[in-house]
Each structure stands twice: as C-alpha cells, then as structure tokens.
Amino acid sequence: MSEHRKDLQIEKSPRFRISGITEGITTLQAAEVLDLTLTTALVKHQGMFQPQSPCLLQLGMNGELSTIRCRVVNNRVIHSQRDGGLYCQTMVEFLDLNSAAEQALKTLIQSLGTNGSWNGGGP
User: Fold this and answer.
1) Prediction pTM value
2) What average pLDDT does this structure show over 90-115?
3) Is 83 exposed, middle or buried (0-12, 13-18, 19+ CB in 10 A)?
4) Is 79 exposed, middle or buried (0-12, 13-18, 19+ CB in 10 A)?
C-alpha cells in the first residue's frame, strides 16, 4: 500500500478522546472504542474514572469533531503498568445528545457494522 493511501486511511479513521476526572484532575486522553450504540460506548483508555462521574467523549471523523456529554456507568482496570499507569475499560452512557452528535454516532455505527463493535486500531 502506498504512503499516500495509508495517510488517507489514517485521516478518515475516527478519532476518539475521553475527558474525565482522574485523581481530582480533569484529563483528556486517547480512547479506543470497543463497542458503540446510540446510548452507550465501551472505551479503553489510560486512567480510572469513578462510576457515576461526568465525562466527555469526543468523536473526530472526517475533519469534524462532536463532543458528547456522558456519565460513567462502570470502570475496570484491564492492565497495570510497573510505573503505576492503568489501562481501563469504561462504559459510558450518553446524556443530552444533540442532533449533530446523534447523526455522527449513527454514521459511525453504520460504518462499523450491524453490531457496532469496533475492531480497528486505536486513535
């Protein structure tokens, strides 16, 4: 595959970031979406979020950015590094979707297939 085609694939790949409170500090970090519906998302990221806490999921696709307000449903550690860094899976529930964010989700879910599972690489 040519370098140009690789760049185009990367550019068109959806990018996800999750923002929440970790140890009292608001963080913004890359996230890999593992499962996605119109009401929830399961994401893998660094850091631990407290259940019921507010967070934001940012979805960047085709040069556009949608930010969705969420609530953490649950969070679990899936990998711990020697330096204390944590990789977690977090289930978030979407709150107050605006029409642009809902349309972006519908388009993304449709592009991922009928089950909404994201099997691609991280952002």
Assistant:
1) 0.74
2) 83
3) exposed
4) exposed
Is residue 45 within 8 Å of 32, Cβ to Cβ?
A: yes
Q: What is the DSSP string of the chain?
A: --HHHHHHHHHHS-EEEEEEEETTEEEEEEEEEEEE-SSEEEEEEES---TT-EEEEEEEETTEEEEEEEEEEEEEEEEE-TTS-EEEEEEEEE-S--HHHHHHHHHHHHHH-TT-B--S---
Q: Which long-range contacts (CB under 8 A, 24 or more apart) does 70-75 make?
A: 70/41, 70/94, 70/95, 71/95, 72/20, 73/40, 75/48, 75/49, 75/50, 75/51
**Confidence check: pLDDT of 15 > 70:** yes
